[in-house]
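=== RUN LOG ===
request id: a7f3
mode: sequence -> structure
chains: 1
length: 153
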Amino acid sequence: MSATASEPPPTRTPPFERILSLTGLTREGAEAVRQAAVLAGPGATIDLVAVAPRRPPGMPHPQAEQIESLVIGDRLASEHAVASRPHIAEAADEPAGVLESVAGHDLLVVPDSGTGLEVLSRAATSVMIARAATSATPFPESILVAVDGTAEA
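=== RESULT ===
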């Protein structure tokens, strides 16, 4: 009789420790949350942010649209066994609200939109612009990573 010691399966180290995803009521916003959840993996937690226009004193906070987008984002994340922490950022515009919320995160996932492009050019952390798949290859089988040759890249 022979006995072999079996090694425990290796633990998966997530490529990103803290992921922040911009939510929204669009298909693009839903895709950003879905891809953030897939990257985080089952059992992980992602942060969701919805941006509301900065309101003058005495005006109601937050707005129904931001609450709804966070509820939808939480549901999408939970479909991938991922928990979420919702946040509403009040800012002059959406890119500013996202950039004010990114501290402490090592990946920012944004929809394919004007906001995504502006955040990409200004963020001091890794940014993934989430686009819906255009082929039968499921996300994340194929990801384009652009680098500019600097040490930070």
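=== NOTES ===
The helical segments are 27-40, 64-78, 94-101, 114-122.
The first strand starts at residue 19 and ends at 22.
=== END ===
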